[in-house]
Amino acid sequence: MHTIVYIPHPVLQPYVQVYMHSSVGGQREREQMELDLFPVGHGVLTFILDEEHFLYNSERNKYYNVRFNFTGQLDRHHHLTTSSASMIYAMFKPFGAFKILGIPQQLLLNECTLISDMLGSQINTLCRRMEDDADDPIYVLKLLEDWLIGQLKKNESLNTDRIAHACHQIMIHNGNLPIMDLYSLSNMSKSSLEHHFKEQVGLSPKMFSRVVRFNQVNKFLKDTATSDWQEIIYRYGYFDQSHFIHEFKHFFGYTPSQIHMSSENLSGHVSGLETGDSKQSY
Questions:
Q1: Residue 9, CB-side half-sphere exposure with 13 Å CA sphere
Q2: What is the pLDDT of residues 138-173, one digit of tens each?
Q3: Which pTM was predicted?
């Protein structure tokens, strides 16, 4: 897997984490490969540069033929079978997809949806232009970014500030902020926070916290190669070893001691790059 990471336009940076141009699989056309996907806490807009593409999600027993698509938040591990492909990604902030697309994110949980099914015929002109220039990834990215900026202006009235603040509080506490403290820090009632958080992020505050904590644990395991589960249980606030292992397997698909069994992991590859220092302008 080869990926180049690009920095979004400054006006989009509060809502878009990074862009990526990624090649998955070998050079042979329609070559199939296995991929694991785990929740990373945000949605992804994808344009597949290859005209023909195959994708099967065994978790949902579902085939996809969605060249320009949006994948919403995930709340569990997914296993994919896919053909080799070259793709352009826009990786949103947790609340960013709602701001840009204007669609309640809980409707898109665990789904990969054709963008024209979400936004209607208004998107068809952009789709055709990207398809016509699919052999020029940088130009496709420029077309996509111009459209994203237009969407941001269109949805200017959508306010995500309070939910952005709630997400920030959860992340700086590594997913371990008590929920009552979150209500207080957000200056929102339980019902109001739950409603707006699901609408703008796609997950409940509790599930988002679990996803954030899992990603911190996964990063810690990769960085330290530790097998001291008691240290992790203490550091990240799990009840006991059984709780930690069950939670890890729910999101990763394998227990912590089975990490090596995971197929090439798209989420791990992407999340490692988006937080790194290798970003460039295009």
A1: 13
A2: 999 999 999 999 999 999 999 999 999 999 999 999
A3: 0.91
